[in-house]
Amino acid sequence: MTWQLLLSACVSGALYAVIALSLNLIYGTMRLLDVAHGEFVMVGAFAGYFLVTLLGVPPVLALLGAFALNGLAGLVLYQWLFAGIIRRARSTESLESTSLLVFFGLSVILQNGAALAFGGTPRAYERYARIVHVGGVAITGNRLVAMAACVLAVVAVLVFFARSTWGLAIRALIANRDAAAIVGIDTQAAFRLTCVLGFGLAGYAGAVIGLMQPVSPFMGGQYLMIGFVIIVLGGVGKLVGSVVGGVLIALLETVGTQLTGPNYRDILIYGTFIAVLLLRPQGIFGRHAA
After folding, report:
1. How many CB atoms are located within 10 Å of the residue 177 CB?
2. Is 29 exposed, middle or buried (0-12, 13-18, 19+ CB in 10 A)?
3. Domain for residue 45, yes or no?
């Protein structure tokens, strides 16, 4: 494996880790099956694109703008939609099935709404296009900035959940919601914060994608599926597992397609997905139920 391939895998792995972290937060904490997550990534990509091209915001600040806009949307959706779904659910199974239908509807609305508003033609802007040489390996500046932005986001999220009071509270909710409520954790406040972080990170990842490639209303599907594959690989609710799974999938994608050809990319990824479900359904970092 050449250093060029390894660097390319690092860029993809960092991006995939952010997407998987955000998706794992939403499902692990609230048990909401967010099948519209790819569309929220797309919304963040368009937010970053318009912040840069229309308002002249520097691309790095546009990443934070996309995070803030998506995080606000997540908070509004929780207050007006998700809170009622969670409150009325009689079991985890009914919550998952109801949220699946709701998010499917949101996916259709967001994708078609974006297509009507912006058209189906991909849009792109050029920033940091200069070639940078790192130890003899060439990489465009925008990909280097994208990798750095994703690594910083992943580190910030992991530190938040390891050191802060609210981060520990959310981890307790992921581990056992009933026990967390018994010891006095404000579950509603934790859910609101989770929505801000989860949907905000999705928007952040979308804006990062906009740094490297064109954005379109139909870009979300591939990132949704990769996010679910990584969650299964790393373990539901396992935040470190999302990071490790993202890197592993990126290595498999980069090296595997180099060895076999680009037409085998989906076969490699979804073949791995099926193999993990069969051999270790709880994921790398998950545990068997007692």
Report:
1. 19
2. buried
3. yes
Biggest distance spanned by C-alpha atoms of the chain: 58
Is the Cβ–Cβ distance between 53 and 66 less than 8 Å?
no
CA nearest to 21, candidates 181, 237, 269: 237
Task: Please indicate, yes or no, if residue 89 is contained in any of the structural domains.
Answer: yes
pLDDT class of 190 with cuts at 50, 70, 90: very high
For residue 159, pLDDT beyond 90: yes
Which tokens in the block code for residue 168? 């520990």
pLDDT in tens, 106-141: 999 999 999 999 998 899 888 887 888 877 788 888
Structural domain harbouring 173? 17-219
Question: Chain centroid to CA 278: how far?
Answer: 24
Which residue do the tokens 């959940």 mark?
161
CA dist 53 and 34 (Å) reads 30
**In total, how many domains does the chain have?**
1
- 164, part of any domain: yes
pLDDT for residue 289: 43
Read off the pLDDT band of 290 (50, 70, 90).
Answer: very low
One-character DSSP codes across the chain: --HHHHHHHHHHHHHHHHHHHHHHHHHHHH----TTHHHHHHHHHHHHHHHHHTT---HHHHHHHHHHHHHHHHHHHIIIIIHHHHHH-SSHHHHHHHHHHHHHHHHHHHHHHHHHHH-SS-B----S-SEEEETTEEEEHHHHHHHHHHHHHHHHHHHHHHHSHHHHHHHHHHH-HHHHHHTT--HHHHHHHHHHHHHHHHHHHHHHHHHHS-B-TT-HHHHHHHHHHHHHHH-TT-HHHHHHHHHHHHHHHHHHHHHH-GGGHHHHHHHHHHHHHHH-TT-SS-----
Would you say 249 and 233 are in contact if contact means Cβ atoms under 8 Å apart?
A: yes
